Q: What sequence folds into this?
């Protein structure tokens, strides 16, 4: 499905709901089922200084990730999107699913507060581009706009 259609669907899906868990669940499902070449799409929420697994689609995942560890923890620490074409070249990569080859993680920051991350994995090296980064940052923006955290 094309990305503009997905963004339009996401807006419609989330516009009538403000619950973060419900909206993260629908966002993960829409991304996972609407985009080719993904093997995981979901969220980690920052709780008491640790990222804790949230709603997702895909195989079972790591439950807790320390800030600064792996791609997700690095995104939180840097407070910016981290795009990794080859996870095996990323220092400290956490292998939750050995099939994952590339990853993009977008921080969820609302009113200056770090809430967690949107994490997308692919079984293909180099799956994510700068265009994908812009797209997933828009996904995070739509989610944050429609949730009461």
A:
């Amino acid at each position: 499905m094309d990305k503009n259609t997905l963004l339009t669907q996401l807006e419609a899906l989330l516009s009538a709901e403000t619950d973060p868990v419900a909206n993260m669940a629908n966002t993960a499902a829409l991304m996972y089922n609407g985009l080719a070449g993904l093997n995981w799409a979901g969220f980690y929420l920052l709780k008491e200084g640790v990222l804790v697994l949230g709603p997702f689609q895909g195989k079972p995942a790591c439950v807790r990730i320390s800030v600064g560890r792996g791609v997700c923890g690095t995104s939180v620490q840097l407070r910016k999107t981290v795009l990794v074409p080859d996870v095996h070249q990323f220092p400290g990569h956490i292998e939750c699913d050995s099939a994952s080859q590339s990853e993009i993680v977008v921080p969820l920051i609302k009113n200056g507060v770090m809430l967690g991350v949107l994490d997308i994995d692919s079984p293909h090296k180099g799956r994510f581009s700068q265009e994908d980064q812009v797209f997933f940052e828009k996904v995070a923006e739509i989610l944050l706009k429609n949730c009461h955290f």
